[in-house]
Each structure stands twice: as structure tokens, then as C-alpha cells.
């Protein structure tokens, strides 16, 4: 079967217009921002501008105001949006909302789509995804899920503690993973619940101070204490939450890679401009062999990351779970993006560590990506296990 990785003309045009929008509208506003995290007013301003430009929520279906992009189409557009830290927020393709929209489109009932997906896709509210828990609860191993949901006469009661829940502050609703059968360590028995903001049984316990600061709504610790929800709050089927999580996590890992690849390109552009302008020791930086090697290595990292993203996206678009390809892509991209930003800062020297260019901030923002969505070590372990199983299967034939 032929693998065609080139974007369709309509997608290429959308990516081009996104790139223009980011440079003409988003980046100037980003430079005026004094705080790392934008305000709600800035979010609304950016999203209104993206909506007016016909770029808003391109990943959701036309019935929700989007372009219905498949994963390969998202790769082209999201990379251009990610050229700015605020670009994904402007287009409403930032985490965790983008991944939650994907999940709701795939799993939610028609009623749930109207109540949650439609306003989320319109930017009228935000959301969060509550799975990760403090140790020894769910983290890199979701089977350690400890939050429990028990049946009541009117629905379900959720009890537990979640932490590092991105976007929780100000979210209109939460998708909460809770164990409905079995015990911590079991491979099944989880269920997803839609919990509305304002539910008296769900509270933000604290805001977690982190290295990165650009995620809208920050990272929070949530407490579910006798949190009661009705039966129609169940997303999908009872005890099938881990299966639905895979519907979200594989594509979400790739969309993270797409957005951060945009930042890597931005960092490389800053570095190459500096290398072409800065003169010392009788020549321009870009004429020095060591600098040329760093620039070349970054070009290789960017191209290789894009190729791995597109390969995984092609598999996902064919309906394949793409577990191996998404794990490989996520691991490589997380580390490649870091390398590109780090090299760019090094090339720029004192300018790179100053606030005159955003490379220092980029470095802080991209470093956690080697941990978010599964640390590189966990992915390498899974990649190796699949390779060993494949070899054993081939030998058994």
C-alpha cells in the first residue's frame, strides 16, 4: 500500500494561512505579553481572531465548526500553529481541550456531544482530563488507578485525588478516570465520567508550580470527595475507560509532537538568523564549522521528527492503533525538540539566555515534554517489549 505523506491542496492552504496568521496576529501579541500564561481576555481575543480568519478548531467536524482534518492534516496545520506558544490556544487546538474534543467525537453520546463537545469546540468553555494521581496512584502505569467510583441510587459517587491536571483551573468540565471494578494494578475496570464545574464534590486543592508556564489553566491537584454524578455522566461504557483512553492518548501524543515541532522550527529560525548576522573572530557565526554542524543537526532532527509524526499519523488514519509508531514518534520528538532549542540557545550565546529572544522560555516549556504523555524511559521499555515479541513471533513461525 502506498504511503502518501503530502498534504492535500486544501490542507496545504490551511497550513499556509495558519502560518501567516501566527506571524501577523499571534506573535506580536505574544511579544507584548509580560506574564507567561495569557489571561482569559487574551484567549478570547486570539480565538475571535482565529475564528474570523476561518482557522478555528480545524480538527473537529464541520458540524462543530471545524474542517474535519484527519491526523495527517492536523500535522501540517498544528505545526504551523505551534510556531508560537499561543498559536495552539488561538486555534483551539491546545492540550488538553484538543484531545478531549477528539475523545468526545469518538465516544460521547449525541446528548453528551451537544452538552460538552459543541461548546468546547466553540471555545465557550475549557476542559481537563483527570487521570494522573499522586504516588502510588496512576501515572506512567495507568493500571495503578486508585480513584474509585461506586454506584448509588441516583448514579455514581467518586472519591480520590488527582494531580498534575492540566487546565483544571477554570475548566467547565472534567473527564475523570475512576476505578469501577477490580483493584489498583488490574488491567481493566476503569470508567470515564463527565464532571461539571461547580460540583461540590470536586475541588482544586492547589496549583502546582512547574518548570513550564504556558499551559492555560496551569497544572492542579484535584480532590474528589463524595463527588456525586448521574448515570448519564458516564462517558462510553462502564469498565471500558482504559480502552477509551487509548482512543485519546495515541493521537494526543502526536498532536503534542506537532505543536512542539513548531517551536523547534521557531528556535532554529532564531538561531540561523543570528548565525547569519553575528560577526566575531573575523567571520560570521554561520561560517564556523561548529555552528554549521549544530544547524545541520537541528535540520536533521526537525526533518526526522516530522517524518515519524507523519508515519504514525498515517497509521492512525488507517484505523491502526499505531502503538509502536506513536511511542517511537513521541520519544524521538520530545528529545529532538529539546536538542534543537538547546542548540539554538547555544548558537545565540548571551542573547539566547536573555529575555530579548524567547529561547530561554522555549527551553523551560519543552523540557517537561520528555515526561508528559509518558516519560521517554517508559516508551523505550514498551518499544523494546514490542520488538522482542515481534522477534519471538517470527521465530515461532
From TrEMBL:
GO cellular component, one term: cytoplasm
Limits of the Acyl-CoA dehydrogenase/oxidase C-terminal domain: 239-387
Superkingdom of origin: Bacteria
Gene Ontology MF term list: acyl-CoA dehydrogenase activity; flavin adenine dinucleotide binding
Membrane spanning residue stretches: none
Span of the signal peptide: none
Complex formation: Homodimer.
This protein's name: Acyl-CoA dehydrogenase
Amino acid at each position: 500500500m502506498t504511503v502518501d505523506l503530502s498534504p492535500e491542496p486544501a490542507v496545504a492552504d490551511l497550513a499556509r494561512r495558519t502560518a501567516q496568521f501566527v506571524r501577523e496576529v499571534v506573535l506580536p501579541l505574544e511579544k507584548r505579553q509580560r506574564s507567561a500564561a495569557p489571561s482569559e481576555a487574551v484567549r478570547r481575543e486570539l480565538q475571535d481572531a482565529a475564528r474570523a480568519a476561518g482557522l478555528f478548531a480545524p480538527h473537529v467536524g464541520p458540524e462543530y465548526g471545524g474542517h474535519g482534518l484527519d491526523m495527517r492534516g492536523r500535522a501540517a496545520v498544528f505545526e504551523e500553529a505551534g510556531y508560537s506558544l499561543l498559536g495552539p490556544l488561538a486555534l483551539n487546538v491546545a492540550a488538553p481541550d484538543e484531545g478531549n474534543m477528539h475523545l468526545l467525537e469518538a465516544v460521547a453520546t449525541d446528548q453528551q456531544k451537544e452538552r460538552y463537545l459543541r461548546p468546547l469546540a466553540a471555545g465557550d468553555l475549557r476542559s481537563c482530563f483527570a487521570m494522573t494521581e499522586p504516588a502510588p496512584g496512576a501515572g506512567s502505569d495507568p493500571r495503578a488507578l486508585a480513584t474509585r467510583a461506586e454506584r448509588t441510587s441516583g448514579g455514581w459517587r467518586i472519591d480520590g485525588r488527582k494531580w498534575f491536571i492540566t487546565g483544571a483551573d477554570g475548566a467547565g468540565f472534567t473527564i475523570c478516570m475512576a476505578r469501577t471494578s477490580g483493584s489498583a494494578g488490574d488491567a481493566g475496570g476503569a470508567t470515564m465520567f463527565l464532571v461539571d464545574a461547580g460540583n461540590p464534590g470536586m475541588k482544586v486543592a492547589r496549583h502546582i508550580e512547574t518548570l513550564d508556564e504556558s499551559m492555560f489553566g496551569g497544572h492542579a491537584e484535584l480532590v474528589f470527595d463524595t463527588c456525586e454524578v448521574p448515570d448519564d455522566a458516564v462517558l462510553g461504557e462502564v469498565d471500558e475507560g482504559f480502552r477509551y483512553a487509548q482512543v485519546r492518548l495515541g493521537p494526543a501524543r502526536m498532536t503534542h509532537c506537532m505543536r512542539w515541532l513548531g517551536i523547534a522550527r521557531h528556535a532554529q529560525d532564531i538561531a540561523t538568523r543570528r548565525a547569519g548576522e553575528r560577526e566575531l573572530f573575523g567571520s560570521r557565526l554561520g561560517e564556523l564549522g561548529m555552528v554549521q554542524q549544530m544547524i545541520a543537526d537541528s535540520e536533521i532532527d526537525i526533518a526526522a521528527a516530522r517524518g515519524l509524526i507523519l508515519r504514525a499519523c498515517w497509521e492512525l488514519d488507517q484505523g491502526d492503533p499505531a502503538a509502536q509508531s506513536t511511542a517511537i514518534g513521541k520519544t524521538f520528538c520530545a528529545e529532538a525538540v529539546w536538542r534543537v532549542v538547546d542548540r539554538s540557545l547555544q548558537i545565540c550565546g548571551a542573547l539566547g539566555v536573555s529575555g530579548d529572544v524567547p529561547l530561554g522560555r522555549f527551553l523551560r516549556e519543552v523540557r517537561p515534554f520528555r515526561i508528559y504523555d509518558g516519560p521517554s524511559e517508559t516508551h523505550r521499555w514498551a518499544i523494546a517489549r514490542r520488538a522482542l515479541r515481534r522477534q519471538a513471533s517470527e521465530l515461532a513461525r
